Task: structure prediction
Amino acid sequence: MMNNHKPTLKESLKGWLYVLPLLLIIGVFNLYPIVSSFAMSFFTEYNFFTNEVGALGLNNFTTIFSDPTFHDALENTLIFVVGVVPVEVILSLLIATLLNQIKWLSNLFRTIYFLPFVTSVVAISMVWRWIYNKDAGLLNVLLGWIGINPIDWLNDPHYALLALIILAIWKGLGFNIMLFLVALNNVDQRIYDAAHLDGAKPLQQWWHITVPMISPMTFLVTVNAVIASFKVFDEVYALYGGQPGPAGSAMTLVYYLYRAFYEQNKYGQAAATGVVLFILILLVTLVQMWFSKKHVHY
Amino acid sequence: MNQTFKKLAVGSAVALLAASSLTAILPVTAKAASKPTKVTVWHAMNGNYNDAFQDEVKAFNASQKKYRVVATGQGDYTTLNQKVMAAAKSKTLPVVSQATYTQVPDYAKQGIVQNLDKQIKGKDGWSKKDLKNIYPGFLEQTKYDGHYYAMPFSASVRVMLYNKTILDKYNLEVPKTWDDIQKMAPTLAADGIATVGFDKSYDMEWDGLVHSTGNQIVDKKGHVKADSKDAVQAADMLNGMLDKGYAMTAGSDMYGTNNFVNGKTALSFSSSAGVSATKKAVPDDFDWGTAVVPEYQGKRATPFAGNNLVLTSQANKKEAAGAFAFMKFLTSDKQTAKWAEKTGYLPITKKAANSKQYNQYLKDNPLATAGADSLQYGFSDAAFPGYQEYRNNLTATVDKMITKHTPAKEALKTLNQQTEKTIKDNK
Result:
């Protein structure tokens, strides 16, 4: 039932009462930490444990921006995002389309593709450590069949980031395929029937009907993937045994943050890194929203 | 159905209430009977080590009535450190915590721990004789800024493992010097065996080599000499061996155990505390032994690692006294020898190391002798605020030399600058 009259004060209060519990939870566990980490990024002289702030300023930001390791972390994170997101989105869309075509064993395949999503990152990384093993790893055996020399995936700084990207794509596929399948099922069959009558071939149907019709889902999946990729940490930590890859070659922004906070007691710099990450994700998401206004059909 | 459910619900609610009111009363009655001061201890000992630690706690609790130690494992050292930091912030620190000795300066600087000077110098403290009884390398670990901040507890040292089968097959002796290693390496390399196996990084071995030459990477006063001529030369030697296939690092295996057990390396450098892990990993017919690290330029030096016990700043007077009593108990000759036998860590005191009991243990466990024999060659790094950052930079430097083949001179010069900056920033 739609209410068109202006809500009375009592009704408003009642409404607020309903949202209050969740608001409290979000306030305590989300908003307060965000605000305080923003504040912390400006504390240049700070005792984390007594909460005494000696001085404020922009020093934390200037320090991290002049730190070569931070530059590496920023660069690696951007490479990671660019490497993961497009492949992950396109690949999961393709697999979802194919899965949507078959009837036989489709549920089995859906389960198989979904498995990585419900498995813990640490367990997955353990398995991939074996796959990437230089001497006995599955990947090198497969590459050997097509004549490629064994690659020391986990110890060669040139391949560390690539190894991470492959793992992340594989891990992200399952959930995205699921989302795409939902979207594909929601496309009105009559549009396809009409196209069929007009003589459109399957590929044309896919490109001119499927892709535009599921664009809201593509948008959602992309935004999600971008945000998740910017925040990559668990995979690095688990795959490289608590190190940011050989010679720091898989150092990411969140790893840099973690290290500053937990290992080097540089709380202000850790918070500043968090702020930089926040602004980066915000900017990229805004660009995506702007882009979506032009290309996403609701 | 509905009725039964209702009854069940009411019943369980009553039971819950009763239970909670009972637990509310219980501590009061317990307090009235006898009231030993509770001393909470956080540690990072797992598996066998945890069992052995709980035995120590039980023995202490049985030995007196004034204090009751309650020890809880917090996971590994990384997790323990994270929990200590969180607890320091929320003011819920335990009375005692285990901490790597290199962590202590940071803790001291941030006010997470309190110094033990009063207790050590007090009437129940340690006499000069007691202090002399402790190996100086371990005692050094407990001090920061001229004060005692920790009690030595689980100590280990780097030792060398050797594969007897390989050495016998090629008619080689257990090497006594690095020159010996260089001489035997070409023979083994010809058959695809690396003579020396390191963990993921060789930084501990390099540290030992630098010490052998009479230098320190960072000295107690905070002077940095990571790129001294001797330091560069030592790194050059290790890098050269890696390049020629005379040595290999463990890479993503982290520890050299796998390579050693699989016969890819003839010698392997390991923590003496890791010998028991290797013992578990080797097949029954694997013939191997342990030895002290080889001499370099006529001298021998091997770094200690140690996980000490600290008293946190949130402990009150009574708890602090209990904590010290517990620490003193653990470092007593009898207990430290027992602890060493159960875990493979080293005894902290000279008397314990020379005791009949411990020597009998060594006779029964010849693999443990290298650790005990290394006690006289052991040294501890100078710890300073920001040490963790230095160590991160050090492992990254070694990584760069291993994986990117950055020349030692250049890599160590950068490390020197980074370390000087770290020390300055953390002053």
User: Anything to note?
Assistant: Chain A has one domain: 67-295. Chain A touches chain B at residues 47-50, 129, 132-134, 152, 154-157, 240-243, 246-248, 259, 262-265 (CB under 8 Å). The two ends of chain A are 24 Å apart (CA to CA).
